[in-house]
Amino acid sequence: MNTKVSRVYPRSLTFGDTTVELATMTAADAPALAEFVKTLPVHDRLFVRRDVSHPKVLDAWIGALAQGHVTSLVARDGATMVGCTAIVVDPLSWSSHVGELRVLVAPAWRGRGLGRALIQENFALALGLHLSKLTVQMTVDQRAAIAVFEELGFRAEAVLRDHVKDHDGQAHDLALLSHDVAEVQSRLRMFGVDDALQH
């Protein structure tokens, strides 16, 4: 069993001369989330299993926060949402120890380290949720994103051929990557930085 990790939000991260605030997502973020999704290229939405541009899907996401099935973070540059994450857990499944990680970053913030920082934040959240494993799914052509996940220790487990279709009906292969959450904590403890996750 993982050690309980508590994370305090909001917290600030600095990227160059810009400070981004990270906070837990709440129902009050619904309008900003809808606006944020509109800024994303359509292909980026394939990071998420359902079409987040659909109002019912966004309503379900917000509703799942209250039920405890989804834990989400938002990243804000001032009042503007520039990124968000979700760890989705099905507590009634045989895989309740596994969280599906979803990370979305505004196009203007690509390549600045925000995505990497959000993924690392979610390792701490996963420990707090007592998860053993995180998985992430994306189409195989999203090579830059796959490279970031692999640099952080995620490994490919499967490629599902023609598993998703975009709005134009074009089929794409889906890559499934995973990471052992407990391994992250063990590695941090070995280097004496485990306490860094506690605040």
Structure commentary:
The chain has 199 residues and is α+β, with helices and mostly antiparallel strands. The protein has one domain (11-191): Aminopeptidase (3-Layer(aba) Sandwich), CATH 3.40.630. Helices cover 28% and strands 33% of the residues. The protein contains 5 helices and 8 strands, in the order ββααβββαβαββα. The chain has an 8-stranded mixed sheet with strand order 1-2-3-4-5-6-8-7, sandwiched between helices. The two termini are 20 Å apart.
Give descriptors for this structure.
199 residues; Aminopeptidase; 8 strands
Summarize the structure.
The protein has helices spanning 30-38, 55-67, 114-128, 143-151, 181-190; strands at 11-15, 18-24, 70-77, 80-88, 98-105, 133-139, 155-165, 171-180. The protein is of the alpha+beta class and 199 residues long. It has a single domain, classed as Aminopeptidase (3-Layer(aba) Sandwich).
What's the number of structural domains?
1
Q: Regarding CATH, which class?
A: Alpha Beta
Question: Could you state the oligomeric state of the chains shown?
Answer: single chain
The total beta strand count reads: 8
Strand line-up across the major sheet: 1-2-3-4-5-6-8-7
The major beta sheet can be summarized as: 8 strands, mixed
In whole angstroms, the N-to-C terminal distance is 20 Å
> Helical percent range?
25-40%
What's the CATH architecture?
3-Layer(aba) Sandwich
Question: What is the molecular shape?
Answer: globular
Q: Which residues form runs of ≥5 with pLDDT under 50?
A: 1-5
